[in-house]
Amino acid sequence: MAFTQTLLERGDVERMLDIRRAIHADPELSHAEFATRERVLNELEQAGLTAIRPVGPTGFAVDVLGRRAGSRTVGLRADMDALPIHETANVPFRSRRAGVMHACGHDSHTAMVLAAGFWFQRHADRFGGRVRLLFQHSEEALPSGAEQFVAAGLARDLDIVLGIHVDPMIGTGRVSAQPGPFACASDHFDVTIRGSAAHGGRPHEGIDAIAAAATFLQEANRIRAHNADPMTPLVITAGTIAGGTAHNVIADHVVIGGTIRSGGQSVRDVAHRRLREIARGLELMHGVTAEVAIAEDGPLLVNDAGVAALVRAAAVKVVGSTEILSDAPMWSASDDFAYFSNAVSGTYFRIGVRHEAKGCVHPLHHPDFAIDEDALEIGAALLIQATLDALAA
């Protein structure tokens, strides 16, 4: 890993790693990031940043003001919440909270944005305008923290917004900042199927909700293959199913829960329509009643072409053109950064953290997920450089 240039000093990097490890060892779930909030606030206070604007129970923003002439404002987003996963990764700062883990790298995002904030506070004479640090709660659960930040007006006066995400599928320090769709829209659905109970040996006297649920799942899995544009991502997943009370009783109701991940509005509309049509078909085929409820988790995340180009140009300065990927596919996952980038021109870019020799090979949301921490200096330096370039534009 070779820098073309880095703006960070060794002490900056060590402090960033210490913060990341402390947050990693003490992870907190969405809307409950109280200790994380206090830790970040304490760090900001030590740096002289105390003008906090709270959002929700644990989120907040703070502006760093430049001393040169300038009126532009750049937002840097850091998500802070962890996942309900029990960590098994072999790291000395493993989670101390059973069943909770930073398996998506939000500890790293928070530490990189903090490091950038410290740099801008210390070098306020090198830029004009302001840098808004957006320490966001609840990326992983509803209600969306990003949506609450936007509703609170914290994106209204931004010129651009940047987000960074560690990527364990690309090598350490490599950068992907591509224009266009970055991550899928996400919806969750709940299907309630109601039949009538009967003795297991006399099924004709009841209406089998489990049989109807099996038909629903089969047909839902056919939507991608038979109804949607094959060139646009669409993933429909049933994650939960519950029904029945005993081996020998015909189930009178079943509830199915799942998600829809879509890479475009057209296939999203197809999925919504077909799920409801399949439910109506169950009523004719099986004699059940079926209700479908669909709610949005997050919109399609689309990177602005101009902002993506700015990030790539900054990456050339930081790591050189050979480390910039041009063919990394979009994610079938979703991210509520989309609420920011729908409100203001923005780009969500990826920094590689994969290092096979160090055992950093597991995907996001895996209990053994670990990152090559050498990538964090690059990520923080890139946030600083891209922000400087945007403020000078």
UniProtKB/TrEMBL annotation:
Keywords: Hydrolase. Gene3D superfamilies: 3.30.70.360, Zn peptidases. The keyword Hydrolase applies. This is Amidohydrolase. The keyword DNA-binding does not apply. NCBIfam families: amidohydrolases. The lineage of its organism: Bacteria, Pseudomonadati, Pseudomonadota, Alphaproteobacteria, Hyphomicrobiales. InterPro entries: Amidohydrolase, Bact_exopeptidase_dim_dom, Peptidase_M20, Peptidase_M20_dimer. Pfam families: M20_dimer, Peptidase_M20. Residues 189-279 form the Peptidase M20 dimerisation domain.
